[in-house]
Design goal:
This protein has about 450 residues and is of the alpha/beta class. The chain has helices at about 10-25, 45-50, 65-70, 130-140, 155-165, 185-200, 245-250, 295-310, 340-345, 395-405, 410-415, 430-445, and strands at about 5-10, 30-35, 75, 80-85, 90-95, 100, 105, 110, 125, 145-150, 170-175, 200-205, 210-215, 220-225, 225-230, 235, 240, 260, 275, 280-285, 290, 325-330, 330-335, 350-360, 370-375, 385-390. It has 12 helices and 26 strands. Helix 1 runs parallel beside helix 8.
């Protein structure tokens, strides 16, 4: 009898798991349940369609439904799994069907944290997640004059930029003193915030949303701790929380971040049950603290590990060092592991090195500034974190610095690193090396 693998969730983790399972055991029966109308699209691209940098939602789809039929993957669209029986090894779906499994992969994703304020059921409140709803909201944006974005999370930051590009008067409301304070330092975000102001964005930091007010069922204003903001649209971009309700009800263990606990094979506390993506928690490679809510690339990689092992293969997932990057306002920002603010909050000792460099030769057209901040252990000088802001080249540097943290490279190594010098693509002095040299100056002084 062929192995039966059930996957709950059709996002990056779920479809990564389904494809890996089928690749590991081509004879396996693979069933995917998703509550949505589609699978295999990039929700990360939605803000860029709203901002009209990407012309169409159609380009966000990675594969057709027929592609999965041809692969032999049975996808049950618009069908949620409502319960799991880990002893009987069955799942029950919202349409009443019960499916047996030999292996189960949970890829149930995330939910936005409830703002916990009155008026949350009004029309005009948008949660960016499902591409079909995004298509509907994109038409609404043509009629919106004023919008409020609740919280400067990564998604909130992208939506602020997108709405401003769309020509909508945009207000950002966040309780922190600066944007993306959970991952960045104020000096890194200052150029972004300045560019938002240039784009007409109104910034309301150290301010909380206290309610949504409407008329005839539609939003008319957002109330805050610092006054009311008339608005046609509110984008709720609160923290991502792991969607673990079904897992918890089945007795599967969750951890300190709220995510499902998994080992290196993405196996949970229940026999034959794996988990991947935003519903899980993964140890941080430096602090060993479990974290969740990572990127789509993390979710997809975790799904491939879970699917491979669910199908009888053997694959390990490593601790994470969390390279990240994005476009915010008129800038690219990125980082690895810790910001100075987060390391301080966790009580992790560090020294810093900061440098302002350039992306190309100073005389080459369209040269861009690049600022690099490095964090290193005071004793062994191993790199433990980095942040970057600039006009280009941020993603590549973040990827490189993540590998540097993972492999234990020191700022001594970085201070003497070789770098490409070619006027159109690289300056004579690499900003990473300059930042490391500046850190060493502090150590020696």
């Amino acid at each position: 009898m062929p192995r039966r693998i059930v996957v709950v969730g059709g996002g990056a983790a779920g479809m990564g798991a389904a494809g890996a399972a089928k690749g590991t055991d081509p004879n396996a029966e693979v069933i995917v349940f998703t509550e949505y109308e589609d699978t295999s699209y990039s929700p990360c691209g939605i803000p860029y369609v709203h901002g009209q940098e990407i012309a169409s939602f159609d380009s966000l789809f990675m594969a057709t439904k027929q592609h999965y039929v041809d692969q032999g993957i049975d996808i049950r669209y618009e069908t949620a799994v409502t319960s799991i029986d880990v002893k009987a090894k069955t799942v029950t779906a919202s349409d009443g069907t019960v499916e047996r499994y030999d292996s189960l992969v949970l890829a149930t994703g995330f939910d936005y944290a409830d703002p916990g304020v009155p008026g949350g059921d009004l029309g005009g409140i948008y949660y960016v997640k499902n591409i079909r709803r995004a298509m509907e909201w994109d038409k609404v944006l043509d009629t919106v004059k004023t919008a409020v974005v609740d919280e400067a999370t990564p998604l909130g930051t992208e939506m602020v930029t997108a709405l401003a590009h769309r020509g909508i008067e945009t207000h950002l409301v966040d309780p922190a003193p600066w944007a993306m304070s959970m991952a960045t330092d104020p000096d890194i975000m200052q150029p972004v915030e300045d560019s938002w102001v240039e784009m007409g964005v109104k910034l309301h930091f150290k301010t909380k949303v206290t309610g949504f007010v409407g008329k005839d069922g539609k939003l008319t204003k957002v109330t805050t701790s610092d006054g009311d903001i008339p608005a046609d649209l509110a984008v709720v971009a609160t923290k991502k929380e792991p969607n673990t309700a079904v897992a918890v009800a089945a007795g599967i263990k969750t951890g300190m971040s709220g995510g499902v606990i998994v080992d290196g094979k993405m196996h949970t506390s229940a026999p034959g049950v794996y988990a991947a993506g935003d519903c899980t928690e993964i140890p941080h490679g430096v602090s060993n603290v479990p974290i969740q809510g990572l990127s789509g690339s993390h979710a997809y990689a975790q799904g491939k590990v879970a699917g491979t092992n669910a199908a009888g293969g053997s694959r390990e997932y490593q601790a994470v060092y969390v390279p990240w990057g994005m476009v915010a306002g008129k800038w690219m920002i990125g980082g690895v592991s810790f910001s100075e603010t987060l390391a301080t909050a966790l009580g992790i000792p560090f020294i810093t090195g900061i440098a302002q460099g350039i992306s190309r030769a100073r005389y080459y057209p369209d040269v861009k500034p690049v600022k690099v901040k490095l964090l290193a252990e005071p004793e062994h000088l191993r790199l433990i974190g980095a942040q970057l802001v600039g006009g280009e080249g941020i993603k590549e540097r973040a990827d490189f610095l993540a590998m540097a943290v993972r492999t234990g490279i020191t700022i001594n190594d970085l201070a003497t690193m070789e770098n490409v010098y070619s006027p159109p693509i690289g300056a004579l002095n690499e900003p990473i090396a300059l930042a490391a040299q500046n850190a060493l100056t502090k150590v020696r002084s």
